[in-house]
Amino acid sequence: MRTRAFRRALVSLLAASAASVLIPAAASPAAAAPAECHGPKGGTLAEIRPGQRLESGARLADLVSAAELVMQGDGNLVLYALGTPGGYKLPLWNSGTYGNPGAYATMQEDGNFVIYKQGGGAQTGGGIWHTATYGSGTGTVRASLLGGAFVVEGRNPGPYWSTGSAEREAWLCSEYATAAEAWWSGNWAQSASVWLVLQRDNNLVMYRKSDGKAIWNSGTYGGAHRLDLQMAPKDRGDLTLVEENRTAVRWRTGTAGNDGAYALLQDDGNFVVYKKDGGPGKGGGLWNTGTYNKI
Hints:
The protein folds into two domains: about 5-15 and about 40-160, Bulb-type lectin domain (Agglutinin, subunit A); about 170-290, Orthogonal Prism (Agglutinin, subunit A), CATH 2.90.10. It contains two helices and 24 strands. The protein has helices at about 5-15, 175-180, and strands spanning about 15-20, 45-50, 55, 60, 65-70, 75-80, 90-95, 105, 115-120, 125-130, 140-145, 150-155, 160, 170-175, 190, 195-200, 205-210, 215, 225-230, 240-245, 250, 260-265, 270-280, 285-290. The strands form six sheets. Strands 1-2-11-12-13 form a five-stranded mixed beta sheet. Strands 3-8-9-10 form a four-stranded antiparallel beta sheet, with no helix packed on it. A four-stranded antiparallel beta sheet has the order 4-5-6-7, with no helix packed on it. A hairpin with a 6-residue loop joins β12 (about 150-155) and β13 (about 160). The protein starts with a helix and ends in a 7-residue tail after the last strand.
């Protein structure tokens, strides 16, 4: 089942190497039918090291996903998924600190990541938000952006904090080796034309990149428990939204009885469940969002 430790392990798997950079984000990758289902890709961390700041108006660019963390002029720290260069940006997470023009963010030596008002600091006060990752231990301290997730590692052994907004592949598979890699709240994927986001309100929503308009949703917002999106082997090809650490299903595609089926977020804007040997240009579609004509 999903735990905070699992999330931390996922980020560690992603981080093949590290570097401190503030550079433009990469172009958006296009979705394709999976030749084989596999986990997250390796890459390079974009970091804010202890003592470094993200000044008002500055951004930290993701070196794997088309995403960026922006310290906005209004004081809000916002994580965006990027569409076409210069186009609409989809907000994935924010600190809720707007209304503080000139505010900046910094990674402190004590392991805490803090947003201060303009002119504030560790010695003068003025902190308006923090990750509560401070401590007195030893080990790596950093704030990093990789794979669409912003992560803060405090003093070891100490707290760990994340936006939980990791980008996932543009497909989900029902094969045993990958079925455990369910999406959790805040996860998202992209194709050339759309984003698909499992929102923190439990709704699975598709947004088109051209203008950020929602063009499809699962209608599962609300509820007392977080939802996971998965294609478990036991469901035999059924794509489901299941209550976290429970068995209650809130939504499903109704495609059970198709071992090896997979779901694909396509470049034409359609989200499709295919039979094991099916795919774009080959047929075998079992279910779809009907959004191919809405991009």
